[in-house]
Amino acid sequence: MLSVPAYAGNIALIIDDMGYRKQDADAFILPAEITFAILPHTPYSTAYAQQAAAQNRDVMLHMPMEALAGNKLGPGALTSAMDTHAIKKKLDAALISVPHAIGLNNHMGSKLTQLTLPMQATMDFLRQQQLFFIDSRTTRYSKANKIATRFGVPNTHRQVFLDHFQNEKHIQAQFDRLIRIARKYRNAIGIAHPYPETLRFLQQNLPQLQQMGIRLIPISALMQEKALTLRQSTSDDSPKVGSEE
């Protein structure tokens, strides 16, 4: 009788930037545990979201946000010039273009995620829609997770970008780093992109995870745990009857 390995850690993988190119569809060959983060208002945003849902694959809204370097943002982006109403209107329209989304992560956003008011508007919207937030961590100065927690939005952040450089040596080093983090902290989140080099690497290397005692999990499984922890901490911090708080 074959023994089932005891899992040393869990990895959740997100493929960002889905929606612009027809070639992005090659990512659908990856295991259904891998989440697709889809850019709104792109040529294939709605079709890819529907196809992913048909695979029982988690879908996220990959929301463009203003960057410090002034990068071209793409359609539907959030900027620091917008007020709360404008931000929520943009988020609502983006969500319509990416059906089945269960959470949001930022595309770029090194400027916007540092700003309190835009993040408050974003997290208030996510709370109302019962969506979670994952900070892509494009800046170490991001306030997004702290504000998400304050608004009661389940949240976390990515640990590793796999393919900042599209070559096998770099992707392998980042993949190994992700595994080490999963072993040390039990859970790790990696973000990658639908580059041919990345898809080829993942197809070849993901089957080896189980032999290493690492489990590939959908992002929803990890976020359910985050939501439970957040509810418990909120309950623990709430004023008790008879207290002076």
UniProtKB/TrEMBL annotation:
InterPro entries in the record: Divergent_DAC, Glyco_hydro/deAcase_b/a-brl
SUPFAM superfamilies per the UniProt record, alphabetical: Glycoside hydrolase/deacetylase
CDD domains: CE4_DAC2
Protein name: Divergent polysaccharide deacetylase family protein
Gene that specifies this protein: yibQ
Annotated source species: Lacimicrobium alkaliphilum
Pfam family, any one: Polysacc_deac_2
